[in-house]
């Protein structure tokens, strides 16, 4: 079945009448040239629906096909403009599903013309429909979109995708939003692999008083390249939470998993469970809610991010798995508003690596700091990077817990603050090595923080700094607990007398010859010359009978 050049399969009714459903079964279904499949209610009269008392639902769209393609601004849509009427659901079961050229699968609720003209804002609208998609392969390209959103007091609908291979390219998006006073919905993705390349986004968005929804993703492999998984709120509602479970996660060239609050609401939490998580590089920033472009022109780091810019709290970030590796990467919970930053918890079995200016940070520009906890029995390696909990108020804390080795080269662990300094705890590593690095819990107005180190071995270089000072308050405390080490027990006892000069040099026959003769000999590297007639070894390695007298 092919629909082309504006053709359509549509079930529509007028005003109070309910639309029926559309059901299509085909080996191959293709929509091209602004063609569409829809169910909807068409408003012809300026009707007042305030007396409507029961909730009903428009018809659904059900498609079963071995191959389903939507191209050239074509779409499948369910919608409602009637209060107390849900939009229809969309269900798709196919072998392969492909959207390209600004095409879409969408369900939404919209205010009707009467409410708009009369300025009525309190009509009890119902919810957008849900989208349930099952496909062996799913590809979105060239600004195409799968979405369920509400422009009314109704809630957004859920988007559930089950596929073997999910591939998004070139400004496409999966979206669930509440753009008025309704609550957000959930996005659920189950796939073997998921690849997002070139300004792609999976977005759960609320913009008014509604509460955020959620994004839940279960995969074997995830790769994001200059793309985003994004939960947001710009109103008083809480932002959407994000959970990702995957065998491996790669965030490249400015790619992020992020929850942000730009209104009075709090940002949502991030919960990342992955065997191996890799975060690398910078990329061009963009607005994930604008698939038409939205480039910001600034360079942003790849990372895991929660943030708040007004009166809400920043969200918590939890990462669990075998390893977390960052190069020019970022794990950050920040607040530039009135509330505190969130906390960061890293539970890793094998390794935490931060290189090339990477950062794990919690920061508050007006409030108290958050906390960072790293728990691992594997290695922690910082090179030119930082773990930092900074605040304008009282500092947060940084805790490194576990029995592995901690190596820092030009790295920093910091809990600095405008008021009382925060706390730094490094507990039970086998070895703590500081090479031109710093442990800093300084304060400005209040007292310095506390630094506690308990390690089997502690090796700081002379250039390293451990400081808990205060500019105007009292100094904090520094406690270092390591096992007693007898350095003298490893020294070598040198002989009391110098070896005689006669044993250092032996005659070199070539130098005693006269006339026009050639000679060859090899110079040593200093110390006892290689042509010495006596093999000299420090007396500690010789028995008494072999010592030189």
Mean pLDDT: 84
By helix and strand content, what is the structural category? Answer: mainly beta
Roughly how much helix do the residues carry, as a percent range?
A: under 10%
Strand residue percentage: over 45%
Task: Give the low-confidence spans.
Answer: 530-549
Alpha-carbon Rg, integer: 34 Å
Number of separate helices: 2
Query: End-to-end distance, in Å?
Result: 106 Å
Largest sheet: 22 strands, parallel
* Beta strands, count: 42
Outline = elongated
Structure overview:
The chain has a domain of 213 residues. Helices cover 2% and strands 49% of the residues. It is built from 2 helices and 42 strands.
SSE blueprint:
Layout: E1 2-3, E2 8-14, E3 22-31, E4 36-42, E5 56-57, E6 61-70, E7 75-80, E8 85-86, E9 90-99, E10 104-109, H1 113-118, E11 131-141, E12 145-150, E13 159-169, E14 173-178, E15 186-197, E16 201-206, E17 214-218, E18 221-225, E19 228-233, E20 241-252, E21 256-261, E22 270-280, E23 282-286, E24 295-301, E25 303-308, E26 317-327, E27 330-335, E28 344-355, E29 359-364, E30 371-376, E31 379-383, E32 386-391, E33 397-401, E34 406-409, E35 412-414, E36 423-427, E37 431-435, E38 438-440, E39 450-454, E40 457-460, E41 465-467, E42 477-481, H2 509-512
Parallel strand pairs: 1-3, 2-4, 3-6, 4-7, 5-8, 6-9, 7-10, 9-11, 10-12, 11-13, 12-14, 13-15, 14-16, 15-17, 15-18, 16-19, 17-20, 18-20, 19-21, 20-22, 21-25, 22-26, 25-27, 26-28, 27-29, 28-30, 28-31, 29-32, 30-33, 31-34, 32-35, 33-36, 34-37, 35-38, 36-39, 37-40, 38-41, 39-42
Antiparallel strand pairs: 23-24
